[in-house]
Design goal:
By secondary structure, the protein is mainly α. The protein has 34 helices and no strands.
Length: 522
């Protein structure tokens, strides 16, 4: 194959010199280069800031801390505000603090604090103090809801002249207040503050039916869910025509066994479903409840199960639950006793196996291999189960001729596999096997060139990133806007070429036509 023949050093240099040629690179091609270069591990750090700003790619777990520090002081508000899209796990308390406190525009500062509240981000002690004393009331109101706000500051905000600030500060300050201080809030001149204080008051003191029906407590759903209720009110709500209120009642942690029994046979399936997930009922009671459960639905780990992950006896008991969501929540524990792991690995619900593969260090190798048959990985656990520490690593060569392509491709993971097997797999009839060959670092230039014409797009893109591609081929891929982004991820691009590719624009050499060029000939 002519395209894959060996190149001399002179030919490689000539190919790279011809990348830019005498014609301007189309802007759409340069835009794709910018995106691709951000995923190129050979990209120099000093080029990353400009590329991130140009492409708007602020997200991702691998955004370097020093790059975030540069973005924090960027003159463009859109750039600074986009940092919050990286999520709370990407910004440290110090970075969150610098981002918010540096904003002189009141609207910007308020917007960032609001997002920080939603992300449950934490700040430095100095930042908490400054935000609690912010001259803008709505900023102080949001600051009162920040996670980690010192109690002393929350108490101080209870005397703020703005009612919305006092209202926001109630939840954080309430546990530290004595009876007299609580009475002051319960008698606050603002009805919103009084309602917030009364809701907190009724976390400990039962809500009478008359008080609930008066509407003075505000959000009825929140009151029913969180408050201690007088028996008369609880009984009234259990028979209420509004299913949303009965559903809220089913989530109330203070219900009597008799009321739980009533709600367990409620005509609304969402009410019965909430009762079935309560931590305070027996497994016999849970199994007797008729509830709706979609095995293909997306569910979060039950908080009360997650809180018990370090309790072996609780995990042992809950792993035998009749409810799939409880067993799935157990499988999210990082460590589990051997008997619990064995039970979950044999569970009838394969999502339990998946969660065990994604989260538990003790997942058995045989089960991980089973999960591999039908799962490639997710955004939250990329690569699992194949990247699990206990995934089988040896003895995989026996699968090289397996009729199942999911198993066949694993042969490349065996430490005794050879470059010859990689080349053989470039001709495999199944696209997943060819894709694994295209990603293998042992892939030859000949194999990579062959895969550039693969009928499967993912295989072609993977082959485009192969560092053994001849320079003249890689240059052609970079000149074609259809392949430019993936070709720009290729680590074989020389450092000097990367720098020229990262430029915002390029003027054609003097005397050239200055028109856009198409793909270079190969």
């Amino acid at each position: 194959m002519e395209l894959a023949r060996e190149e001399s050093e002179e030919e490689r240099e000539a190919a790279w010199d011809g990348l830019f040629g005498r014609l301007r690179i189309p802007q759409r091609t340069r835009d794709r280069w910018a995106l691709g270069l951000l995923s190129n591990t050979a990209l120099p750090d000093d080029l990353r800031l400009d590329l991130v700003v140009r492409t708007g790619r602020y997200y991702g777990r691998d955004l370097p801390a020093d790059l975030i520090d540069q973005l924090l002081v960027h003159p463009d508000w859109k750039v600074r505000s986009a940092l919050v899209d990286t999520g709370v796990n990407q910004l440290t308390p110090g970075q969150w603090s610098r981002l918010v406190l540096s904003e002189e525009d009141d609207r910007h500062r308020w917007a960032l604090v609001s997002v920080a509240v939603d992300y449950r981000a934490t700040f430095t002690s100095v930042a908490y103090e400054r935000l609690a004393a912010d001259p803008v009331a709505r900023v102080r109101a949001e600051a009162a809801s920040l996670k980690g706000l010192p109690v002393a500051l929350a108490r101080a905000l209870l005397t703020d002249p703005e009612p919305r600030v006092r209202r926001s500060a109630c939840p954080a300050a309430w546990p530290d207040l004595d009876a007299d201080e609580r009475r002051v809030l319960l008698a606050d001149p603002d009805p919103g503050v009084r309602a917030a204080a009364r809701r907190l008051h009724h976390h400990e003191h039962p809500v009478p039916l008359a008080v609930f029906e008066s509407g003075d407590l505000g959000d009825a759903i929140r009151v029913v869910t969180d408050s201690v209720l007088e028996p008369e009110l609880a009984d009234h709500l259990s028979r209420h025509p509004d299913a949303a209120l009965r559903r809220a009642l089913a989530d109330n942690p203070h219900l009597s066994p008799a009321l739980i029994a009533v709600l367990a046979v409620d005509p609304d399936p969402s009410v019965r479903g909430a009762i079935a997930l309560r931590p305070d009922i027996t497994e016999a009671r849970r199994a007797a409840i008729s509830y709706d459960f979609d095995p293909a639905g997306h569910y979060s780990t039950l908080p009360w199960v997650g809180a018990l992950h370090d309790d072996p006896d609780a995990m042992r008991r809950l792993s035998a639950s009749s409810h799939p969501l409880i067993r799935r929540s157990v499988a999210r524990a990082r460590r589990l006793p051997p008997d619990v792991v064995d039970r979950l690995a044999h569970d009838e619900d394969r999502v339990v196996h998946l969660f065990l593969a994604e989260s538990c260090d003790d997942a058995p190798p045989w089960m991980l291999l089973q999960v591999w048959h039908w799962w490639n990985g997710s955004l939250s656990a990329p690569g699992r189960p194949r990247t699990h520490p206990r995934f089988p690593r040896t003895g995989l060569l026996r699968h090289a001729d397996d009729p199942d392509p999911r198993l066949r491709q694993l042969a490349l993971d065996d430490p005794d596999s050879t470059p010859e097997l990689v080349e053989r797999f470039t001709l495999d009839p199944h696209h997943e096997v060819r894709f694994r060959a295209a990603e293998d670092p042992r892939l030859s230039g000949l194999g990579a060139v062959r895969l550039l014409d693969d009928p499967d797009r993912s295989v072609r893109w993977a082959a485009t990133r192969c560092p053994r591609l001849p320079a003249r081929v890689l240059v052609a891929l970079l000149r074609d806007h259809h392949t430019a982004e993936y070709a720009a991820q290729n680590t074989a691009i020389p450092p000097g070429v990367i720098r020229r590719m990262a430029e915002r624009d390029q003027d054609p050499p003097e005397g050239s036509a200055g028109v856009s060029s198409g793909p270079a000939p190969v």
